[in-house]
Every structure is written in structure tokens, then in C-alpha cells.
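Homework help board

Subject: predicted structure for assignment chain

Our instructor gave us this sequence and asked us to write out the predicted structure in C-alpha cell form, then describe one feature. I got the C-alpha cells but I'm not sure how to describe them. Can anyone check?
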Amino acid sequence: MLDFSYEKISSLLPSKVISTTSSLLAQGGFQRITARSYIGFSLFFSLSLALTSFFLVQFFTQNEIISIIVPIAVFGLFETLFYILLVATADARANQIEQVLPHALQIIAANIRAGMTLENAIWGAARPEFGPLQEEVQKVSADVFGGVSIQKAFSRLTQRVRSSITDRAVKLIVQGISLGGEMANLLEEVSHDIRTVQRLKNEVATSTTTYSFFIVFAAVLVSPMLFSISVYYSEINSNVFQARTTGAQVDQAASQRSGISGVPAFAFGSTKNSIKVEDIRLFAIAAIAITSMFSAFILALIRSGKAASGIFYAPLFAIISISIFFASSAAMRALLSPVFR
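My C-alpha cell output:
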């Protein structure tokens, strides 16, 4: 019943969104979830949170603009997270397949040299230790034994795996089959090329370790500490301003009681629309969270070439950086409060 309701909700979206989501679900290994059910659930969940935030924000502010912006931001944020989750899962599965693909090609080549046909050699490479690749090899073998050409079966594999390395390897294999080349030698060469590419990627990741460390150090550690200094400085300014304003009011009242005229009141202007310390603190927390989360995506892009894989580290980075902000704020308040009393 719920699946039917979710499919009804997703029927409002264009077919291109449905097809893209369907491809990502297949690439992520979600075989039992339909694209319309996933999209419908994501819309329902995001809309529910947006409505909840709309009612909750009324307890914190009466600003109409904020009351409208916050629910829209919540809805857009969670819809983006649902999409990034699909992309990150598909990329993680593709990475697992890329790691074991050279071994599978070596096994297929060895089976061919042992006298097996290409179809049986492919079936013999479906081993449990290959993880997601075992499922893909079994699907290719099932298509071939079901009457589908090997070229078409391999082409379907590239649609189920979000990997440029796998796509290039399959294209070379399909061309070799079409041209009638020596498949054992071709598979071994393709396996060797994939290992070379993986080794180069590891070298690049190693050479960028310094940059990765700097990004994490600046975004997760230094940025919260600097923001804590700024917030504490604003607290000191606010306290000084309140003390001087209170003193000026007392002097004004004393002069009026003594009958002395012409003494100007010490006024700093209206503080009704001024920026408060809480506003600065909220801005600091939001900036820290956004900066740390984007640093996770940049770090993932540098390390693996896929920014979407940073979604698994972004919440952790945000939690750590915000915790450092509160810890450094508490430490600074404990150390410097006796000085500024």
C-alpha cells in the first residue's frame, strides 16, 4: 500500500528523473527497490521534515522570510542527500568491482587457455570472493546462455556498473570478440592495464597526502578555534557595551535628580536591530558545519576522484568540528573570564 502511494507521488516528476534514478539504483545494487518507490519515499520524507521545520521555526523567530527559507532549505537538503546517497553507493560498489576486476579477467584468460569456451570461462570466474562482481558475472553468463550475444551481455554490464575503468575494459573486450582476436592474450593485457591505472591512482593519492592533511587541519581544527575566538570577542564587546550603557543611564538619572541640565545622555543608538551574540554564534556553527562538510567532499575528490564518496565522512567532520568549536569556546571562557571581569 505504501509503495503504491509512493509511486503515485513520484508520478508528478518527469520520466527522465525516473530513468536516472532507476540507473543509479541498479548501479548501487538495489534490485528490490523501484525508482518510483524510492523517489516517492524521498519526496514524502523530505516534505514531512520541511513541514516539521516550518512549525518548529515559529518557536524561535517570527521573521516571515526565515520561516519560508528554512523549510525550503530543509527540503532541498534532504532531497540532495537522497541523490548523493545513491551516487555514493553506486561509486562504492563500482570501486569494489574495479579492485577485483583484474583478477577475474586473469581467471577467464586462464580458463580459455585450459580449453574452455568463452561462455564457460566467464561462468567459471563467478567466485564468491569477488563480491558484487560475482553477481555481474552471473548475470552476463545468464544472458549469454539465454541467447543474448556476448557483446550485448557485456554492454548491459556497463549499464549496471558506474565505472569508467570497467566501461573501457568492456569496450576492449567487445572489440576483441568482434574482430576475432586471441581472447586470452587480450584479457591478460586488459588486466595488466587496469592494474597500471590503479597503481597510478594510488601514487597520486599518496602524493596528495600533504594537501589532504592541510584541508582537514584547516577545516576541522583551525576554523572552529578561530570562530570561537570571534564569538568570544563579540561577547566581550557586548558586555562592555551593556556596562557603558547602564553607566550612562545611571549618570543621566543622577543629573536629573540633582537638577543639573545640559548633561547629554550617553547613547549608543538603538540596539533593537543590532546583531546579537547568539546570531554570531549561530552563524559560526552553520559556517563550521558547511565548511567541514565541503572539506570532506574535496578530500574525497582528491583521494578517489569521486566527490560523492565524501558523504560518508561529511557528517563525521561536521560533528568533530562543531565539538571542537564548543570545547575551545568553553576553554577560552574559563581561561579569560577572570581577566575581563
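Reply (TA_rk): Your C-alpha cells look well-formed. For the description, you could write something like this. The chain has three domains: 2-89, 94-206, 208-256+265-336. That's the kind of observation they're looking for.
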